[in-house]
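#data-curation
PF: Archiving a pair of folding outputs for the training set. Convention for this channel: one message per protein, sequence first, structure tokens after, nothing in between. First:
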Amino acid sequence: MPSPERRTRMTPEERRRQLIAIGVNALASQPLEAITIEFLAAEAGVSRGLVFYYFNSKTGLHHEIVRTARDSLMHATEPKPELAAAERLHDTLERFVTFAHDHRLTFFSLVRGAASGDETVREIVDEVRSAQADRLIAMFGELGVASSSRVHVALRSWVALAEQALIDGAVNAELEPGELVDYLERSARAVVTLVSEPRNAD
């Protein structure tokens, strides 16, 4: 029987936000595919039809959950403009590791979404990658790295490397947080240095 709290009348927007929040929180213990209309209805103490009303389908529900998870990651790793560029880079990577560690399945679901058969989910994940790369490009620009196509490609590629490192190091807890932050920072700097150096003539 639903608790009195669950029976509290909400506005449509409040109810929608509540349902999405339940879905995102569920990622802490199960994969995205396991979060169904029926599961969400039971957790919220509402009818299956009401969940359908807000999301139209399981696919629509998953899109909103992934978008909200994306926004949570982007907010949690937002660079702090008051910090100097070098300190800001370290701080941002530190919070990236913390997010992956504290929200393991949420982060894993986002990364795994890149291989999803759902085009919308892939686009959402690509948005995260592009935004994170753009943040890095801006920080390295402040550190004196000249903007170039090679630097942009290198840092966008590095984001994919960082995701795998975060899965192995933070999600699977194979590295201590400080060790993982150090690896990410060193590897990002090394990639930028490599592509910024003049190429040797053949």
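PF: Second:
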Amino acid sequence: MTTMKQLLVGKYGAVIWNPHDNNDSVRLERVQRKFMKYAGFRLNIPCEPHNYEPVATQLELGSLAERKWLADIKFLKNVLDGIIDSPELLSLICLSVPQRPSRSVAPFYVTFASTNYLKNEQI
């Protein structure tokens, strides 16, 4: 049986539908605020108008942006660790392997993008 927390935190396909456009993120945040307002009312959690921190704390629910970021990081880790077996995705990740020792410790690099479309591409 699923608990309320599992339903709230469930992220089926979150990496796929994660918006990279600020307008879409704002719209999703609005949906979450409406949900927290409703949940606070139904669960009798006292909170001031437009301050849903007590509801988020009670439900152990972080911000939407934070949860999306964590889901993306977990997905990347699973691809790199081989838990998600996808050679195509792994080939799209730009790993930085230095030819000689250097002070740079960045494991990834970002390729040059000549258009905004390529710049905002997921991988």
